[in-house]
């Protein structure tokens, strides 16, 4: 698992991280975002949203060559 970006708001104790998770040598990986809420120094809530894509994060977020347009109607 690799985290690409991390955010944490100390005053509200809420954070998020953008990640990729996959096995070396495979052609696909899971990419997503996790949102955490911290209470008393411990994770109180962990919500994770992910989507399968190419193994390289750079290819997953690349815009060129994609022919779809995301909207709630085509979300699996």
List keywords for this structure.
single chain; 76 residues; mainly beta; four-stranded antiparallel β-sheet; 7% helix
Structure description:
- This protein has 76 residues and is mostly beta strands.
- The chain has one domain.
- It contains one helix and four strands.
- It has a four-stranded antiparallel β-sheet with strand order 1-2-3-4.
- Strand 3 (28-39) and strand 4 (42-54) form a beta hairpin.
- The chain is globular, with a radius of gyration of 15 Å.
- The two termini are 23 Å apart.
- The mean pLDDT is 89.
Indicate the percent of residues in helices: under 10%
Q: Output the strand order for the largest sheet.
A: 1-2-3-4
- Portion of residues in beta strands equals over 45%
Distance between the termini: 23 Å
Q: Average pLDDT, to the nearest integer?
A: 89
Given helix and strand content, the structural type is: mainly beta
Label the overall shape. Answer: globular
Number of helices: 1
Order of helices and strands: EEEEH
For the report, how would you describe the main beta sheet?
4 strands, antiparallel
Uncertain segments are: none
| Total of domains | 1
Please state the CA-atom Rg, rounded to the nearest Å.
15 Å
Annotation, overall tally of beta strands:
4
């Amino acid at each position: 698992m690799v985290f690409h970006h991390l955010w944490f708001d100390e005053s509200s104790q809420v954070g998020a991280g953008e990640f990729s998770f996959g096995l070396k040598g495979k052609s696909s990986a899971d990419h997503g975002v996790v949102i955490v809420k911290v209470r008393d120094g411990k994770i109180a809530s962990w919500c994770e949203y992910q989507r399968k894509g190419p193994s390289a994060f750079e290819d997953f977020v690349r815009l060129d060559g994609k022919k779809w347009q995301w909207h709630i109607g085509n979300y699996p």
